[in-house]
Amino acid sequence: MAEDEPVADESSTTPRATSARGPANDADTYWLSTPGRKSQANVAPILGVWLDGALHIAVSQAMHEPGHLGTAAGCAVTTDPRGLELVVRGAASRVLDEDKLGRLAEVFAAKYQVPIDVLDGSFHGDVVRAAGPSPYDVYEVTPAPPGPSADSPSDTRWSF
Question: 120, 136 in Cβ contact below 8 A?
């Protein structure tokens, strides 16, 4: 099975993972869920784009408890572009490479139609108020391998 095909059987009418990337990039609002203290989930609105085949998210330092991303516990990013109800579960790693941050700033700025500056490894600028105030830390989300879901046995699982 090619890496962009759904995990479902070959006769499935489920869309391919590559067809989810376009709508996912069209979404304006994404939601980040991470484990919080005392087993309570931490959920925050975030910004997101696809670049180089990966989901990248910008998280307001004021809206998200520090230290939850980049841990072994992982995260989930959800969005609902065009009724697709997309959930990406996996590990988030902070992007600190200045060249990559510069490229990502251009993509985020074009998508959200606002100027974004890179300063001290974070995005700065008045991006989207719902996503919280500047500065924003940027992460690349590496999807976890697909597996069974306790929520719904009919959930579509893709390998990216």
Answer: no
- pTM of this prediction? 0.75
As a whole number of angstroms, the distance between CA 41 and CA 7 comes to 28
Q: What are phi and psi of 109, to 5 degrees?
A: -60, -40
Q: What is the pLDDT of residues 60-87, one digit of tens each?
A: 888 776 566 766 568 899 988 666 778 8
Check whether 90 has a pLDDT greater than 70.
yes
The domain locations on the chain are 17-137
pLDDT of residue 6: 41
**What is the secondary structure of the chain as a DSSP string?**
--TTSBSS-TT--PPPHHHHHHHHHH-S-EEEEEE-GGG-EEEEEEEEEEETTEEEEEEETTTS-TTSTTSTT-EEEEE-GGG--EEEEEEEEE---HHHHHHHHHHHHHHHTS--EEETTEEES---GGG-SSPEEEEEEEEPPP---SS-TT---B--
CATH code for residues 17-137: 2.30.110.10
Instruction: List, in order, residues 6 or more apart from 96 with CB less than 8 Å away.
Output: 121
